[in-house]
Design goal:
By secondary structure, the protein is an alpha/beta fold. Helix content is 51%, strand content 17%. The protein has 22 helices and 21 strands. It has an 8-stranded mixed β-sheet, with helices on both faces. The chain has a 6-stranded antiparallel β-sheet with strand order 3-2-10-5-6-7, with no helix packed on it. It has a 4-stranded antiparallel β-sheet with strand order 11-12-1-13. A hairpin with a 2-residue loop joins β8 and β9. The chain is flat.
């Protein structure tokens, strides 16, 4: 008996833990959960939007505006090449030529030569600034002072010199040298030795009493920093290659400076363009002459090498020789096949004659009997064969009338023998002729194949010699064309320069654009908010509402128990007797009603309550459901079979000295362990001391006897089982239960726990298994609403009123 129980226990353990988990059903987007997550994320989304707009405002507040000044130039090439009798170059070529010219002009504008003229004429080497409340601003041509300097060896370029005006046309100069701050007071025009410079500061027309209160500084820039500044902010691009127009634009934080730089580039560019074209023309003509002279020598050498190759190999087209030899070889192969067929025919004919198998038709036409004889070209041989055929035919006719021993038959046999001898000699002569022709063909084929093997090497050599010749010819023609074109352009073009639109003073900054920045800040807040919703939704791995429970499990939902907020309980308690009109009591009454459909109340019922892990409210549901059933005039007893972690005695504030474990080992009777509660028809038996073998005790016949004994005194036996996700004791009890109930706690139980419910139904055949969603919020009780929305008057239940004030309203809205 004990061995049978052990085998049953092992089978239950394997069925509970060895079955691989299936994928949960109902995959896809859970709109209910998504809406719930979105509602809870609304405050964070609003906060992120506010943060995004605030960041945009701070960006605009602390980012200096950038202005852009532009001008458009037209570079006309007035040509008179038509006077020389030469037309235009063509549409596509002319357009490409215009693009090349304009690209060269762009490089000229952005060259160091233009930069040097620009720095000398605009005095960009010294930059003046005034410090504002938040940002510093450059004073271009509006500075109240002017600095002249002489750089000495080791001068510290790009050093910030602070300047503060003092009374009596004096000023204080501050700078950092050798990691130490230096300062001094000086007068206007006084020489000052500072950071390797000899400085003189002079007042300008902008030196007024209002300027005395400002805080200023200046920087002496070196050539490298000025070139980098110009390269970063100067943009020169082709606007229309067909119209020969280019655009020049410059960006800077000071609009006056941007305009001045663009206008100065326009004026400096005209002079430099003319000088550059003259130098370029002289260098180009010299280069073309040198290239033509060098290329002529190379071309002559390549021609001589190719001509020597032709003389040496006695051919000027190796590819044609390859084709000709290939054709000859094919012809030889065809002739060889014919000769071989003729040799085979002669051999077959000799064999037929020797074997007297040369058949003859009655009409004497041997060529129709042996069609292959028509292909023999030797007329004498064919004539002799025809004679032989006639003689054989005549012999057969004579043999019909005479015996073989007669003279007439013998005479004809001698004639046939003579004819065969002549045919043999003719056949041998023809065979020798065919063999000689085949030998000659072999010799000729070998010669042709030898020539063919040499041709690839000659073809490679010809290609190697021909490539440089073609290259030099093409290059020579190209250089001559370039020289002619350049000469025509040089003789018939007149450089012309026009400023179509001069640089204007920009009034609106190009960056940052306020509307765009605010839009980006708002969009960033919205995107981050949506990302927050998506992240919280993807990370949301707990069951939140009854719809999720119904969709992902095969077991029916017996009911939903709302959150109990009346008091904070450390352990599960019986609360339905204290608050019989509360929403939670009504919810459990609804579960009791649904139990009537699962198992009739007029017969004895065994109800087991389990869950996946501890903390899902299994004991709370057991105690309060038993209390509700007991309130309907049914006698109920609760058995605490969670012998590893008993809690029923804690729910009733009772001791756990003896109980189920001592009953099953027959130490006590169930009457001795029975304890009473505040509800007269509700009793319970605690788990008792923790045994070392709870599963074996449950499988023993004594447990069945205990249940039968209890059914004699009680209508309903409620069993609080251990969590089936941790131990297998609960599965053993659920097999004996009339109504096994599985507890799932909202916002606590993992979605993966629902796989265990489906596995219990599929593997263990628990077709009567039902589920209860515990601790559910009002928003997640779709179709199971209680409390204010249940149909009774508002205020009927003893619900706690929501807290007044803004915090209470927000809590109610987003809960």
């Amino acid at each position: 008996m004990a061995a049978k129980e052990d085998a049953e226990l092992e089978e239950l353990i394997r069925s509970a833990g060895a079955e691989p988990e299936e994928e949960s059903e109902g995959g896809g987007l859970d709109l209910t959960t998504l809406v719930m997550v979105a509602r809870k994320s609304v405050p964070w989304i609003l906060l992120l939007i506010v943060v995004g707009v605030t960041a945009a405002w701070l960006f605009l507040r602390y980012t200096p505006p950038t202005y852009k000044s532009s001008s458009t130039l037209k570079i006309d090439e007035k040509t008179e090449a038509g006077v020389l009798g030469i037309g235009a170059l063509g549409g596509a070529a002319e357009k490409q030529q215009n693009v090349n010219k304009l690209s060269g002009e762009i490089e000229l504008i952005k060259s160091d030569l233009i930069y040097r003229r620009l720095k000398d004429s605009l005095k960009l080497d010294v930059t003046y600034y005034v410090e504002g409340t938040v940002l510093e601003s450059e004073l271009y041509r509006t500075s109240p002072f002017r600095v002249e300097y002489e750089a000495k060896e080791g001068a510290a370029y790009n050093t910030k010199f602070g300047l503060q005006f003092l009374p009596n046309r004096r000023f204080r100069l501050t700078y950092t040298a050798n990691n130490q701050e230096e300062s001094g007071e000086y007068s206007f025009g006084q020489p000052v030795q500072a950071a390797g410079f000899l400085l003189r500061v002079f007042a300008t027309d902008a030196y007024t009493t209002e300027a005395l209160d400002g805080s200023y500084h200046f920087v002496i820039n070196d050539d490298a920093s000025l070139n980098e500044y110009l390269n970063e902010n100067l943009l020169v691009e082709i606007i229309n290659p067909e119209a020969n127009t280019i655009g020049i634009s410059f960006t800077d934080h000071n609009p006056q400076k941007a305009q001045a730089i663009v206008n100065k580039i326009d004026s400096v560019y005209l002079v430099e363009k003319i000088l550059r074209k003259q130098e370029q023309a002289a260098r180009s003509m010299k280069f073309l002459d040198e290239q033509l002279g060098e290329n002529r020598g190379n071309l002559q050498g390549a021609e001589e090498n190719l001509q020597a190759f032709f003389k040496r190999n006695k051919t000027n087209d190796v590819k044609a020789d390859v084709a000709q030899i290939t054709q000859l070889l094919q012809q030889l192969e065809d002739e060889r096949e014919k000769l071989e067929e003729q040799a085979d025919l002669l051999a077959d004919l000799a064999r037929l004659i020797e074997q007297d198998r040369l058949t003859t038709r009655e009409d004497g036409d041997v060529f129709q009997s042996v069609p292959a004889l028509s292909s023999i070209k030797d007329g004498q041989l064919t004539q002799r064969i025809a004679e032989l055929s006639d003689q054989q035919l005549d012999l057969r006719r004579v043999q019909f009338s005479y015996q073989n021993s007669t003279d007439a038959v013998k005479l004809r046999q001698e004639q046939i023998a003579d004819t065969k001898q002549v045919i043999r000699e003719l056949l041998q002569k023809n065979q020798r002729l065919v063999r000689r022709q085949l030998a000659k063909m072999d010799i000729k084929q070998a010669e042709l194949e030898a020539r063919l093997r040499e041709l690839p090497e000659k073809q490679t050599e010809q290609a190697r010699l021909q490539r440089p010749l073609e290259l030099y010819e093409k290059y020579n023609i190209n250089m001559m064309d370039r020289k002619i074109e350049f000469g025509i352009q040089l003789a018939g073009t007149t450089p012309d320069f026009q400023i179509l639109s001069p640089a204007t003073l920009p009034s609106i900054p190009i960056s940052p654009r306020r509307l765009m920045v605010y839009a980006i800040g708002l969009a960033a807040g919205v995107v981050l908010g949506l990302g927050l919703i998506a992240a919280r939704y993807l990370l949301h791995n707990t069951v939140t509402n009854v719809a999720e429970l119904e969709r992902n499990t095969q077991a029916p939902v017996l009911g939903v128990i709302p959150t109990y907020e009346k008091e904070k309980m450390v352990v599960s308690k019986l609360v339905v007797d204290k608050n019989p009109k509360s929403a939670i009591s009504e919810a459990i009454r609804s579960i009791r009603t649904n139990l009537e459909f699962m198992a009739s109340s007029k017969k004895k019922r065994l109800i087991s309550v389990t869950s996946t892990v501890s903390g899902e409210g299994k004991t709370f549901v057991t105690v309060n459901l038993a209390g509700i059933i007991a309130a309907s005039d049914q006698r109920v007893v609760i058995l605490d079979l969670d012998m590893r972690k008993p809690k029923i005695n804690l729910a009733f504030d009772a001791e756990n000295v003896k109980g189920v474990s001592t009953i099953l080992i027959e130490k006590h009777t169930w009457q001795e362990c029975l304890q009473h509660t505040s509800i007269p028809s509700l009793d319970f038996i605690s788990a008792g001391p923790t045994p070392p073998n709870p599963s074996e005790l449950i499988l023993s016949p004594r447990f069945d006897e205990l249940v039968e004994s209890l059914f004699q005194h009680y209508d309903v036996v409620m069993i609080d089982t251990p969590p089936v996700g941790l131990v297998t004791d609960g599965i053993l009890i659920m097999r004996r239960a009339d109504v096994p109930i599985y507890i799932v706690r909202a916002n606590y139980s993992k979605k993966s726990f629902l796989k265990n419910i489906n596995k219990l139904i599929r593997v263990n055949g628990f077709t009567k298994l039902t589920t209860i969603l515990n601790d559910a919020q009002a928003s997640s009780m779709h179709g199971y609403g209680y409390g204010y929305g249940y149909g009774y008057g508002q205020g009927y239940y003893e619900e706690e009123a929501p807290k007044a004030g803004l915090l209470g309203r927000l809590r109610k809205q987003f809960s």
